[in-house]
Amino acid sequence: MKLSHCAAALFFLLPIAASAADCDHPPGGIGLGSAQANLQCAEKTRAATDQKLNDIYQKLLATLRDDPKRGINPHSDLIAAQRAWIAYRDAECGFRNSLSSGAPQWAAVNRSECLTDLTAARAKNLAEYLQQAQAE
Q: Residue 122 burial (CB < 10 Å; 0-12/13-18/19+)?
């Protein structure tokens, strides 16, 4: 009986797995299916880039120490800067998306790609700061 439940579950999950986008070979075209497949790939890339940024951010935070006696607060300043950067990134991508005259089904793809681009640039900046902090 339990085996039949597993088989039934597999039967229903197969279409989901089969519909997963092949990000190495994204579909061409401009249809809804293409937009959905491209969104899956864009979101996969965005999530990986966001994880990279978070890893670098955590390493940088761990290396910075505030020194209130000297009036130096790099740890606190980084937290404030990162919060402001997130607000900027989200607003910037919203603005860019509002200027896009493409098909509505591509709006989410465009936004995800914008988030990825800005996040990758920020990760590069934070990596440079990390190298500088580790050199001191």
A: buried
Averages of pLDDT over runs of 10 residues in the chain (136 residues) are 39 39 62 77 96 97 89 94 98 91 80 96 98 90
Residues 20 and 1: their CA atoms lie apart, in Å, by 30
Query: Which listed CATH number (1.10.357.10, 1.20.120.450, 1.10.10.10, 1.20.1270.180) goes with 2-135?
Result: 1.20.1270.180
User: How large is the angle between the packed helices 32-63 and 74-99, nearest 10 degrees?
Assistant: 170
The secondary structure of 74-97 as a DSSP string is HHHHHHHHHHHHHHHHHHHHHHHH
Per-residue model confidence (pLDDT) at position 17: 37
Q: How many CB atoms lie within 10 A of CB 96?
A: 15
Angle in degrees, 0-180, between the axes of helices 32-63 and 107-135, rounded to the nearest 10 = 20
- The encoded tokens of residue 78 equal 């980084």
Q: Full-prediction pTM beyond 0.85? A: no
Please calculate the CA angle 90-95-97 and round it to the nearest 5 degrees. 95
